[in-house]
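writing this on my phone so excuse typos. first protein, seq and then structure
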Amino acid sequence: MIRRVAAVTLAVVGLALVVRGVQWWLDCREVRAVVAEYLDALRRGDRAAALDSLSPERRARIEAREKSGDAAADLTLPDPGWTYRVHHVELAGDAAVAELWIEKDGFKIQPRLHLARSPGMRWKIAGIEPVATDPRWDDLERARTRAADEQTGLELERAFAGRPGVRVERVTLRHRER
């Protein structure tokens, strides 16, 4: 009798763990699908589809910013050639965090998207953490700016060469470190 109770208890606990594991797997899969839908909509420039992936609160904030003329609220990414991968998903009840790797030309950013389960039991993007640029990109931009500044200096020097009263001197300014 005790063996039978222990076996039934073990079977019920095992079944509950399997059900919970399957539910976790399904939630992770759905979170990844919502993130993929959002990023694919951004890539295509499909504003309506991108807005459908957002929570009502986030959508209202973006629409309010767009009405006020804030260009940062634009939901299109006109820069082609980037790829993404959902690196990691963390679930905590009705909240989830998806970590992404977005790459282009060897440069990588790693945004984190916060998702919340909507009343209709569908995952929606509730927030996006600010993304820091790849430090190598900042270095490349500084080098490009420096090269352009040197080119402009040479052009000015050539343009004013031999003119009376004009003296061109180069002064190297240090770039402000962040």
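second protein below, same order as before
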Amino acid sequence: ETTQVSPSKYRKTCPRCNSLLKINYYEPECMQCGYVDYSFTPSQSNKSKKTLLGAGTRYVLRYVGEFPSLKDTVAHVKLQRLRNRIIYGVCCPFCKLAMMQSSLSGKRREAREERYKCAEGHRVSLTPSREGNLGWK
């Protein structure tokens, strides 16, 4: 992935081999010898570009459990970065607080089930529905 930056904002030629530098990820890099200008700082316009993660991809998950009274309750989920992986950021469907991923000791989890708990003590499991869509229970 390359980033577009105004050419006047960074060094254009490599100090080692005099070939052109290209912006790769965040710094100008020489494709010939591998030199990278780590002193480069990207402009603010670069940081505002929206990626799939940065665009705030949100999901509205329906209840897929066995209690009819919760049938119309939805949970809001957003993709978030945690170090080098993408996780779900779950908003509690009951109190609207952020939830943290947890595990219930002593209980066997279903295939592809992820469990979350909020500060109020509400517990939610994200799991595929019978149709294959992601839902919560």
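Confidence is low (pLDDT under 50) at residues 1-8. thats all i got for now
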